[in-house]
Write a structure and sequence with these properties.
The protein is an alpha/beta fold. It is built from 16 helices and 24 strands. 34% of the residues lie in helices and 22% in strands. Bound molecules: ligand UAG, adenosine-5'-triphosphate, 2,6-diaminopimelic acid and magnesium ion.
């Protein structure tokens, strides 16, 4: 593709030459440049991509998109905002793949990974070919790719959509993080369905205020647009979360609501918890069907209702929704049980916000017949305000809370733990900085029918300390501790 064709829709401030080279690839990382690449220079959080312009030229780049005039001899197109330009160029270079796909974006503080997996199960059952993009991985056509971000930068995202469309994918379920929305990673993505799970405090290190955070989330709904031609457009909103009223105003698309209240279009009724799941009646308009969800917790009913709504507006029948939700497989690190024959329960869960911890602990407390222990920490270089809150919630539900390290990143683990302990109101807690020792300790205390919750890291297989990713998997550490105890018995 010629440079000018690729950039014809950009708002261009300056062009260094009228030379119009052929572009064979688009790159935002100078290290990946090959002969014929277009390099888009981004000002990042760590480094400024503009400082790699000369390197890009030496490696054979044909042209550069930048926010300033550069001292290179290849064509430079100066734009106001390289991130915006990148999203437009990427969509164009990969021939607008999302025009060919039914794209379902899921946003909200908690439940995105779970909801997208439930959507995947429903679409698989309906024999549609669905691609998944999110925290755990990108997955389509029987292949799985590692994720660095929950929502990738626009360039990788558009390439992924193109590969999906070429592989015969028809529908995509993707997690859309608030950071991705704020940074414009999904500009250029033509969403058909936008789903909102809930909003509670998180990521305030990044967004600073809850209003900014809310605003970032609302971008998914404001960019959803109107329904035109034969294209499906729908905003799927959780009516029981007050933020939905604002999102309803933000979107021009038709709205379908879900929730437990009577006012919802898609309703969950007659909830009944069992140790292995939740029975409820799924009502859509005047249709209703009983459903035996193999997931515990009221919050998972919300996730199921969100997934059911997205599937319903995409044309999938209630019967298919029922059978696929009933057969849903466990999601890695989400209420994942570690069971090697011990007589107490060990649950690994990704609750790393106050609201998710509250939900998971409430659910466990409702089901437990004996003592409940929780091992939990908070990530470093992340929202500090959630630390005392999470500690308070942990000790309020558990008979004993063991506070430990999550991913300390660049922070002193003792300092993070001090922030947590500032929130406690009882003495039902202990502090053990080393996460392996904390898990060992919890397991050494358990007796028959007790429940141990290990929260915060879920599926993660590493612990990040000062930029180094050490192998660490709560499920493996718990298994070893249980085995050690069983062998000593
Ligand atoms: C704060 C943030 O969002 N950072 C993202 C950002 O990194 P960055 O700004 O530090 O990039 P940088 O290293 O400064 O590089 C700037 C530019 O120079 C280029 N470069 C760099 C080096 C070089 O030699 N040559 C070169 O050209 C880079 O390719 C880049 O284009 O761009 C990277 C590439 O797209 C992202 O992977 C990275 O996400 C990091 C890993 C991150 O932790 N992000 C978090 C905040 C995030 O986005 N989280 C949400 C999920 C949260 C949730 O689910 O709860 C997410 O969607 O993942
Ligand atoms: N609808 C929900 N409401 C509140 N808490 C939830 C909900 N669904 C899941 N959780 C809790 O939040 C944790 C994370 O769930 P999930 O991974 O689905 O969310 P997420 O939005 O993808 O999170 P992240 O932004 O970190 O990727 C779960 O392990 C569970 O404890
Ligand atoms: N996407 C979230 C995940 C947090 C997981 C938790 N284990 C932590 O490290 O804080 C974040 O990066 O804030
Ligand atoms: Mg997720």
């Amino acid at each position: 593709m010629k440079l000018y064709d690729l950039t014809e829709d950009l708002l261009v401030f300056q062009k260094s030459t009228s030379h119009n080279p052929t572009i064979t690839s688009v790159e935002m990382d100078s290290r990946k440049i090959q002969s014929g690449s277009l390099f888009v220079a981004l000002r990042g959080f760590t480094v400024d991509g503009h400082s790699f312009a000369e390197q890009a030229e030496q490696k054979g780049a044909s042209a550069i998109i930048a926010e300033e005039v550069l001292n290179v001899s290849i064509p430079v197109i100066v734009v106001k905002d390289s991130y915006r330009a990148l999203a437009q160029i990427a969509a164009k270079f990969y021939d607008d793949p999302t025009k060919q796909l039914n794209v379902i974006g899921v946003t909200g503080t908690n439940g995105k990974t779970t909801t997208t997996h439930l959507i995947e199960n429903i679409f698989n059952e309906a024999k549609r070919s669905l691609g998944l993009i999110g925290t755990l991985y990108t997955k389509y056509a029987n292949e799985t790719f590692e994720s660095k971000n929950t929502t990738p930068e626009s360039l990788l995202l558009q390439k992924t959509f193109r590969d999906m469309a070429d592989a015969g994918v028809t529908d995509v379920a993707m997690e859309v993080s608030s950071q991705a929305l704020a940074l414009g990673r999904v500009r250029g993505t033509d969403f058909n369905v936008a789903v909102f799970t809930n909003l509670t405090a998180d990521h305030l290190d990044y967004h600073e205020t809850i209003d900014n955070y809310k605003h970032a989330k609302s971008l998914l709904f404001s960019q959803l647009g109107n329904r035109y031609a034969d294209e499906l457009k729908a905003a799927v909103l959780n009516i029981d979360d007050p933020v939905s009223a604002e999102l309803m105003q933000a979107t021009a698309a038709p709205v379908i609501t879900y929730g437990l209240s009577d006012k919802a279009d898609v309703r969950g009724k007659n909830l009944r918890q069992t140790p292995s799941g939740t029975f409820f009646t799924l009502e859509i308009g005047d249709q209703s069907i009983d459903l035996d969800l193999k997931m515990v917790g009221r919050f998972n009913v919300y996730n199921a209702l969100a997934a059911a709504s997205a599937a319903y507006v995409s044309g999938i029948s209630l019967e298919t929704i029922k059978s696929s939700l009933e057969a849903s497989k466990p999601i890695p690190g989400r209420f994942e049980t570690v069971n090697i024959g011990q007589d107490y329960a060990v649950i690994v869960d990704y609750a790393h916000t106050a609201d998710s911890l509250d939900n998971i602990m409430q659910t466990v407390k409702d089901l437990a017949t004996k003592n409940v222990y929780v091992v939990v920490g908070c990530g470093g270089d992340r929202d500090r305000t959630k630390r005392p809150e999470m500690a308070r919630i942990a000790e309020s539900f558990a008979d004993l809370a063991i506070f430990t390290s999550d991913n300390p990143r660049s922070e002193d683990p003792e300092h993070i733990l001090r922030d947590m302990v500032a929130g406690v109101q009882t003495n039902r807690y202990e502090v053990i900085v080393n996460r392996t020792e904390a898990i060992d300790y919890a397991i050494s205390k358990a007796t028959k029918d007790d429940v141990i919750v290990i929260a915060g890291k879920g599926h993660e297989t590493y612990q990040e300390v000062n930029g180094v990713f050490h192998d660490f998997d709560d499920r493996e550490v718990a298994k070893e501790a249980i085995m050690k105890r069983l062998s000593q018995a």
